[in-house]
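Appendix B. Extra example for self-study. Work through it before the problem class; the solution is given directly after the inputs so you can check yourself.
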Amino acid sequence: MSMSDARGARERLVVIGGDAAGMSAASQARRLKGPDELEIVAFERGHFTSYSACGIPYWVGGDVPERDRLIARTPEEHRARDIDLRLRTEVTELDLGRGRVRARDVDSGAESWTSYDKLVIATGARPIRPGLPGMDAAGVHGVQTLDDGQALLDTLARTRGGRAVVVGAGYIGVEMAEALINRGYEVTVVNRGEEPMSTLDPDMGRLVHRAMEGMGITMVNGTEVTGLRVGDDGRVRAVVTEDAEFPADVVVLGIGVRPETALARAAGLPLGEHGGLLTDRSMRVRGQQDVWAGGDCVEVLDLVSGQQRHIPLGTHANKHGQVIGANVGGGYATFPGVVGTAVSKVCDLEIARTGLREKDARRVGLRFEAVTVESTSRAGYYPNASPMTVKMLAEVRTGRLLGVQIVGREGAGKRVDIAAVALTAGMTVEQMTALDLGYAPPFSPVWDPVLVAARKAAAKVRDAG
Amino acid sequence: MSMSDARGARERLVVIGGDAAGMSAASQARRLKGPDELEIVAFERGHFTSYSACGIPYWVGGDVPERDRLIARTPEEHRARDIDLRLRTEVTELDLGRGRVRARDVDSGAESWTSYDKLVIATGARPIRPGLPGMDAAGVHGVQTLDDGQALLDTLARTRGGRAVVVGAGYIGVEMAEALINRGYEVTVVNRGEEPMSTLDPDMGRLVHRAMEGMGITMVNGTEVTGLRVGDDGRVRAVVTEDAEFPADVVVLGIGVRPETALARAAGLPLGEHGGLLTDRSMRVRGQQDVWAGGDCVEVLDLVSGQQRHIPLGTHANKHGQVIGANVGGGYATFPGVVGTAVSKVCDLEIARTGLREKDARRVGLRFEAVTVESTSRAGYYPNASPMTVKMLAEVRTGRLLGVQIVGREGAGKRVDIAAVALTAGMTVEQMTALDLGYAPPFSPVWDPVLVAARKAAAKVRDAG
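Solution. Structure tokens for the complete assembly:
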């Protein structure tokens, strides 16, 4: 008699990972199937569930007064909904053949097997920590988890208003630069790329660069960190690059993350070129019947390029969880893919992008025209109309929109949504010129900046024949 | 020898109306054809060209410090581009048979005929002024033209901080209520409809109603104005309704506008059921070869309902002008239609809509489900996350998005653009649930409010079978 038979008609869902994707899946499955039909066991290595990692920079910077505000749903709330949540419990092995996982109590070290009928892998991502001298020194912090955030805040309490170095100038890097400026630090950002925000083309990244310097942030681009100088007390003293040294009381690593797929790899599950799990449209792991995966540990289809990407972002993780939960719970839902939308800010500068950059388009063999326009977020005569720059890429011949990048101030960033929807719909830039967007002087110039860019792009595509 | 032969190869374009549509058409045509090829004569009844009528409430309210900021291009600038602009000159007759227009100098009364090869009608709209006793009293103002705005400001200088009554609670009405509040007036809005903002469903209008009351504005709904009480000095004293009298030092009329098509009607040009000129996709008047029309004097195709509408809005007028100018100038452009997007604000309340209201959908025979969700403009834990309400309509069976209405605070209004693009693309609410919209805590909850509404609408459509 198998384990499954022993439990009779009641199935068991095991979820690995208690953050956005995993717990959304568990919650949605529970909504569709009660505890009589479906037992749900969720393993989480850390102390917390369902929290907003994206909110950590704002907690560190002081905009969010306390940690618990970042927690969407506590362990107790999950348990109250009949989810058997096991905190501080790390899954150490997947046995797909026998349908079970081995889990270890992090504190006691005790291990045991738990069988499943359905499995959700939501192991997230781990921050890239280059194996350089001094990386483990006190005062060097990632900002991936709530524990990371608390540790960083402890360091800030100790080094109040000193010198901070942020390594990396992607979303996390620029958001942490803002947080540290808000905390009164003298901030230097050391960045490997030519310009900050490598998710933008360099010409748009340059605008971010200049704006950050205008905020008093020291930007050091095109520089590789070679190590950290550590004091006798074991605390970090400086970030060392090939040709300079940047004194630091605190160092924040914002270098990026990789899919956390060691378990999946060991179990022989299919991984893509970015190291993420590969799923089908229902978020089921390819080739598997009863195993789903979502969140930062999976790769997603980029609908514009037609290729797989790894985009660790809370909003995707939540969608994945919702889709998985619906399918596990006997419903039907799919995640068709992404267009690569992202928005961020550093102080009052808003930065947004969707679709392909120039180099992405080239890499997938698309020939394009690119235009850049300057406009304002509101009618030029309205108070606080602020300048914004919109870059737009369109395929030659078809005129299909390929991507949009925006750098501006208040009201600029979320305009990227217009392009995100147009990309999803496969619109041409010519079609976009006729879009009926909301207009009133406090909200937009009479030609919305996105329309101005579309008109210019459409003209350029026409001229290019 | 005809007039046209006499001028040889050089054609003459005559434009009637010197605001957004007319002068955009003239400018775009000039861009494509130099003065050797195309002569351009533009007649404008008033003193100004190419100004933002939409900006008048903000000038009156003091946000825009001076009138000239609202003028996008002055008469001199147009003339410098070889456009023969004749101000204070009213066209009094169209002679389509002989291809000429009769114009009268408003000041001298002198009349003369001008022949054309191509004609653009951009006569705009005229405000509705009910024929009630006292409507012509001093202190009663429309806000359609810059001259209207100046006259109102003169009255405000005289009545500083007194009592103001706004008649009508559409966009102009609520914007003028804000302007008058900003000027220190005690403001009453008298409105015929059940709730303010009849471009929204009444349940959403009610939110606007409550918010306006919270701003100290007195809202009187469901009330018909029967006349004005006028003092012996010829100045307005009160607005009189069927069962009350509202003391007023100044009265602002925001009742709406009708297409100004008397000339076109007299000439036998085709008008629609809303009194606007009917055009084809190139903005050419139906049945005509060389006559175009655009702006507030035309009707436009509503892409969602498939019916004609009259939507006086600067952003459409500018698009029309651009399209007309391209076609007149030998290029090619079309205006496919609108989805009915509009955004407005009253103090810090943002109000937006696109697509069909419940009654619009019913009128065109569409069966739908409607959902309303409460969410926030930013992540709930982020400072200044403000509540916003999104109502969404979707067709049963197909699940096609039919319309969205939004009432909220900062960051709420322009989210309507997401729906505007989705409507244009003919998306279903199920497709919308997967939209890859910009997410970061300062910009949006992890599920954008529009996605929350789409999820709820999709579920309701499914449940309805």
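Self-check: The first helix of chain B runs from residue 3 to 6. If your reasoning did not lead you there, revisit section 3.
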